[in-house]
Amino acid sequence: MNNASPTGFEASGQRLWLDYLKPYIDDHFTDVYGTAVGVINPKAKFKVVIEAHADEISWISVHHITKEGFIYVRRNGGSDHLIAPSKRVNIHTDKGIVKAIFGWPAIHVRNGKTEVTPTLENIFLDCGCTASKGRSGLGVHVGCVITYEDELMVLNGKHFTGRALDNRMGGFMIAEVARLIKQEKTKLPFGLYITNSVQEEVGLRGAEMIVERIRPDVAIVTDVTHDTQTPMMNKIANGDVACGSGPVLSYGPAVHNNLLKLVIDAANKAKIPFQRAAVSRATGTDTDAFAYGAAGVPSALTICRCVTRTPRGDRTPRRGERDPPDSTPACARYATATTSVTSSSGPQRMKLRLDDTTPRCTSCCWPWACSVRCGWRTWPF
Question: Are strands 248-251 and 58-65 parallel, antiparallel or unpaired?
Fold first, then answer.
């Protein structure tokens, strides 16, 4: 959790993730930009993706470095400029980590009547150098990536707070699915592609690339959402979602309705509580890239844990909060429950079915047969 994995610089985090995953998978690969994929049953024709994104929002010092040594930054993802002043950061250089802090004039010298708020134009970093020569000696240059130094912390014994839980929680959950499949010696009749995508925070770029390489038949994407129980949150605008009340299932155009119903049926069968959220137009997550990539992939978005953004990072329930006594996190049980339903070879009367002989519908070449286009088909296994 404490490792840095900023957008475009995810390699070290991906190595840690793959090292954890390797004992539970049959094969793995990465693409040229760093998306990592672990595969169970790679020879199967029918492909199911469970996905998270590996990158975290950060800053890049590409804007300007003054002759006095102060550093002006640009966003690398959706970093919040309002919380930046007084935050400590790590500047990642070829020579190692350089410590710095976001500066801001002290209250004593500010004029309350004309006080300005932090913006991308006026926030700056101070790394203790009085001139550009001293800064360059540390290895700091235009293009260095910057992350907050905040580390994982537990609140009240049951909540995690820390940098980049968006979406380390998802990466952990999908890895746990692989671990549970291995532990329980489950034999899958399809190929399972555990995918940790890069560059989600700058436009879903990693998912856009990897969907074309895998060309899956189904994708279940994980991400985070906001805890709307906290102050200054508008439930009318943002929904009613609470930390610890279970995973959140999303409704929206990119979410395949029949796949979502299948996921809900699996959760109900396993007696896993869940919440619901509605999205307008796009989900803003890798779900969109999978749903509309590779000629269309039936996709669902599951929110692993509820998150509230704070100046110190993200907050999420600790393992076991409101989970049953079996100690398995609800989202991991939820994902494996979904897997067990989709892999059932018995006479299930599911409304989400495929052609008997091909992963694609033989009538319309759509990845999933639908009642509007060509009627229901049956599973290929």
Answer: unpaired
